[in-house]
Design a protein that fits this description.
alpha+beta, 2 domains, globular, three-stranded antiparallel β-sheet, Arc Repressor Mutant, subunit A, 21% strand, two-stranded antiparallel sheet, single chain
Length: 230
Amino acid sequence: MEYAPGFSSIAALLADTGRASMVWALMDGSARPAGELALLAGLSPSSTSAHLAKLVEGGLLAQQRHGRNRYYRLAGPEVGQLVEALASAALAAQPRQPRAVPASRGTPQAMREARTCYDHLAGELAVGVFARMCAADWLSEEGGALKLTASGEQGLQALGIDLHQINRQRRQRLCACPDWSERKPHLGGALGAALLNLCEGEGWLRRSTGSRALQVSPKGRRAIMAIAAS
């Protein structure tokens, strides 16, 4: 197997705490100015500028101009998936103690229950949906790849998800995205994004200002927990 030349450079970019903090702050899919990222990462303006330049050059962030201001966002959904996978792997690699406090316990309840993972739903509710989809044979694994079954297509279309529109997108259709707080997978890819859009459109979930946590209505909690339920 040949060595992937870009692997170590990406790892080096995320190995710095300041850069990792800025990337993590953008995991909600937002675009933020350098000044705000500097405050979030606890860095000086000059240091922030240098770090952001490296992240843009390394392909992890994209830069946008709005008038005189520069805003930064993740370069694409694959970057968000990478960061979530690294967060999950970091928790799994921590030494296990006989009476250790669960890793998710230190996470605010709102973040544990429902949050955005770049452009799709994560947290307890998302992990539950994924598990029920697998149990109901909506999802299957073939040759190591996650597939949507005929039952899954019918179920998602019944929810109001347009599979034809999803199939036209130039991105991964679906994937099992590691959930760092639950240590189990949730649905990622275009279908995961469509599920989040559905939940927001129905008013089941609402975005929180300045946080990736999602506000869940009582009706929304019941509706999401009913997805793929037998």
